[in-house]
Amino acid sequence: MDLFHTLTELIDMRSFSNLWYWIALAVVWSSASHWILGVPFDMVYRSRKQGGQPMDDLEAIVRVNVNRMMYITEMSGHWVLGVSCFVLAMLGMLGFVYSVEFAQAVFLLAFPMAFVGLINWAAARRINRDGLEGEALARQLSLTRLFVQLVGMLAIFVTALWGMYQNLQIGFLG
Question: Residue 168, SS3?
């Protein structure tokens, strides 16, 4: 018996029964709800509480990130959308038509993150269009975070249900 065979017997390599997948899922959604438009949410909280320099810093960072997002959208938005849709369709087909569990796991991470990207893009567009500053900017970032958290809760729920279904269907002995 070689080392690789021993390790694969001890460690389940399937996605939904692997602890590392669930840790990655938690990290992805924790990061997505903490970083809104590339700004850490504690900065939004601190700027609302203290005002002054923290609010100026928040406005500067949001302006940089919004301008960057709008530039990318104008220059290559169609390509990004096309490639994203292709990759998601490929993962969906591989995962749910051809029953590739790894593709299912990646799809259940990537598909909701596409909605997070759309939510962030819509918020950036509104901030850019309306020229939001101060408390209105902090309120928009808080609302964006709420929508991201709602998508995250739904995604984690669906992923957990699908993962439990897969584990029950395959069985715990493989």
Answer: helix
Cα separation, 27 vs 21, whole angstroms: 10
Nearest to 66 by CA among 127, 113, 115: 127
Euclidean distance between CA atoms 172 and 166, whole angstroms: 10
> How is residue 87 written in tokens?
């990759």
Residues 6+ apart with CB under 8 A from 12: 18, 174
Taking the alpha carbons at both ends of the chain, their separation in whole angstroms is 20
Per-residue pLDDT of 23-60, as tens digits, reads 999 999 999 999 999 999 999 999 999 989 999 999 99
d(CA 72, CA 33): 22
**CB distance 145 to 36 below 8 Å:** yes
Nearest Cα neighbor of 24 from 87, 147, 84, 109 is 109
Residues 61-81 have pLDDT tens digits of 999 999 999 999 999 999 999
